[in-house]
What does this fold into?
Amino acid sequence: MRPGFLAFCLLVVVTSLRGQAPLPPVISGQPESASVYPDDIVILRVTAEGANLSFQWRREGADLPGENAPVLMFAASLAIPRARYEVVVTNPGGSVTSLPAWVFVSQRPQTITLDLPALVVAAGSGVRLTATASSGLPVTVTLVSGAASLAGNLLTSQGGDVVVRATQAGNATYAAADPVERTIRFLVGSLAPYLTVRLTDQSPLAGADLTLRASAVGTPLPAFQWSRDGVAIPGATRTELSLAALTLADTGRYAVTVTNLAGSDTSAAQVTVRAAPVFTRPPVAQTVAAGDEATLSVEVSGYPVPALQWRRNGTALPGQTGATLRLTPATVAAAGAYDVIAANALGTATSAAAALTVTVRDFTGTYAGRLSGGTEGLLLVRADGTAALLAPLASGGAAVALLNATVDLRGNVRGSGSTSESTPRAFVATGTLDELSGTAQLSLAALNETFTGTRIRTEAPVAAAGLYRLALVGSAGGRGHALVAPDGQVLVVTSGGAAADGAAGRLDATGRLRATSTGGAALDLGFAAGAVRGSVRTATGTTGTLAGAIEALLGQEQLVNLSVRGVTLPGAPLIVGFATGGAAAKSVLLRAVGPGIGRPPFNVAGALPDPNLQLFRVNTALAQNNDWGQPPAGAAAGSPTPPRAPPSPPRPR
It folds into this structure.
């Protein structure tokens, strides 16, 4: 067969298919009937298959204007209590009508509740009737039979059975309710109950059994109900209430109430369970950082309420008698084993011990940093919780030498001082240290400066590390400080009384610092064995000697210069005493002005022509000089003397 012929056949088939008429709609889901109440929302739904569908809903065969969707929704009304609904589905292929769906609308049902306080009451008493309808519509109560009167909802009778009926006729929405009837018996000759055996307070021991008993009279016989702390005990309706194996949880106020149609009577008593102390929650071990708050607490049961006493390592802590122990702030000395003794009249108990571990934050070390003004600074934090800050100020001629700031256990820093300059400025330094990051932040508010530094960490700190006090030899006003960091950084701050100067550098391998100060002075200082000594040459060429010692040796300094001026005669010697101490030999130089004091430029009248200088240790003469030229060999001048008992004063004669 030729290809051209195949194509022609296919074209014929396609043309034939396109000429067919469209199919009519097919309803695959019919609307469903419904029974509803007034104001309910009715939803009728149809499902249809086909192209270009349109819908028209009908009620009782009449079109519903505007209802042209697959879903019909409307509110039910008793005005149309019963109706047939259907929908016509149309497309170009035809129309199809759904099966009918019936919607029935009926009144809502309602019920009546008639509450009575009792079905048997004393003759001559009144019974208040409470009647309600689920619809909320008013309920009518009528007297059906019996010698009684009904005023409003209050029913009274002098005796016999009385029948009452409650009704509700309904309305347009609710159907009439089924009536409810009740029979109340008014009993002649009733007697209100009275408890002849009443309850008394009890204080049993924990673990014991306890039975509470009551007895009552009344007509009719009264019913019993036991309660504890105002709450009825389920099933406790006998004349006795038994409590087995008492615990502290059984403590409470118990009552029994007897009731009959004529009234009720109640008796109550306190039951207090006594028990020796028992720890229900002991203290818990914990670890805190020094400076933080440590809190230990316990829970203990027992009655009478136990008295508590906290102990540390077996020793009572005065005043610590509460359930919670707070240590603010916790210190290293507070670490130990803590327990509690609980005692009452029935016994004593000791809690398990809880270990309190106090870790110490280590802030010690040297922090290198800068002031916000740009100058370098060093902060030394000592092991005793004090700190020193050295830093020249950017303004020049002024410096900060804060020597005795305090550092608390939490790293808070506080100290006060004044600047070194012609007009000193007082300031207060406050800030914090961070142990983990090794950083320092200090504020010098009055100076408008802040110090930010980082702790220097090195595995091989230089031997000279520490804070030194300096003095300019031969000067009454030349003072200063040098701070040597563990890594060899050095910061020197000096003051001549009117202005301050500063220099920074690093120790060389021999322990020397060679640096030029901000003011142009050349420093050459050697640090060894806790001492510092060296030269300073100012920018104008003036030279001097700087010397000092590390602060650990302060208070152990040698006497450098002592001058005494007085009159001495052969029969009245001038005596001056001094003492030396320590473990090392010391050189002592003694000087006195001889006959030359009477000559120019001194011209002191009455000078001795031939005085005698003698050195004694107690009563033993060590050396003397009676020759006012050159000292003879072995004279006291320059001779080393080992430390011994305090010597007697030298005696010039």
